[in-house]
Write a structure and sequence with these properties.
The complex is a heterodimer of chains A (159) and B (248). Chain A is built from 5 helices and 7 strands, in the order ααβαββββββαα. With 159 residues, chain A is an alpha+beta fold. The N and C termini of chain A lie far apart (65 Å). The mean pLDDT of chain A is 81. Chain B has 8 helices and no strands. Chain B is globular and about 60 Å long. The chains are: A alpha+beta (159), B mainly alpha (248).
Amino acid sequence: MKPRQQRMLAVGLAALGIAIAAGLTLRAFQDNMMFFVEVSDVAAGKYPKERNFRIGGLVVGGSVQRDEGSIDIRFEVTDTACTVPVTYSGVLPDLFREGQGVVAHGRMGEDKVFAADKIMAKHDEDYMAPEVADSLSKHQQDIQQAVAKGAVECGTSDS
Amino acid sequence: MWKWFHQLASPPHFYRISLILAPWLGISGLILVAYGTWQGLFVVPMDYQQGDAFRIIYVHVPSAYLSMMAYMIMATSGAIGLIWRIKLSHAVAAAAAPIGAGFTFLALCTGSIWGRPMWGTWWEWGDPRMMSELILLFLYFGYMALRSSIDDTTKADKASAVLALVGIVNVVIVHFSVEWWSSLHQGQTVFKKGTMDADMRIPLFIMLIGFTLLFGSMLLRRIRTEVLYRERRTRWVREMILSPGGGA
């Protein structure tokens, strides 16, 4: 084997070794790499009990309740299968609205209500002009229907 | 083809070619970026949710793409230098690092400025996309620090090439972070169908090409200085400097 081929082999094997090591490490830390916990996992009780974590999902349409004269807000998040109620008191990001993806940071209460201390809006990968978006509001209705249908599935699978 | 390739790897030949090529890349890049900026700021309609804030995408996406592109160029030329012992390719790797670090910094800054009004946060520790892009910046810093800490150029080339190769893992993570894990950062837009209207997407592609051309021009200019320094004791450099044109 020529020295050049030896070097090629050495670099190739080293790269392969690093790739495998990195892959295994990432697999081991899979849960820690997640930025938020899915709503279904939270509903099934798979979340950190004694510490803060983030929950991510869509704001259920019509679920947002604001207290008159205060900044307290209560709403439900869903992943189209399960829903979890969230309470929050503070400033909301511009993109917060019903049907919008949000990430809430906080802690799960005894009453199974998620008490958030920070709300972030999650933007999706779609960009379009306002007039195009109007004609696409059907998309929102589809989400609502999926939410209504999914809530039943979540209840039956959990009980 | 191979002959042309070997010729290109010879420093004096590369030096002459880059002298001709760099201004053209720079000028065409500037024209495209100017056109794309005008389109992005004044012509493109605003986004249905984000309003005008989305326009930062025309700087953010090209910077983020180049932050990874520069790293891949740096690592690949490092590997070529290790295997084929081509001196020029190590010069390419050394020249690419600061430019890549610059674009990484720009991507992080523009993302943060956009994130404050849209997400409601400047920075989130724990988001895989943000963390891996920050690690990319630190990898660039580490690479440059390693290079400058070793006096012997040949040794510095080898050591930094190995570091660059190991760091490729992180570039893969940056790219797939939004698919493998849940994140605050949104998923892929640019090369996915139906995610962006054509009148928003086309200026983005113009910016991508323009940024790439500008990057090419910057890279060539930096390689040229790197080559001059590395070959400072050779005859061709001396002859060129002493020649009537002075090697401008």
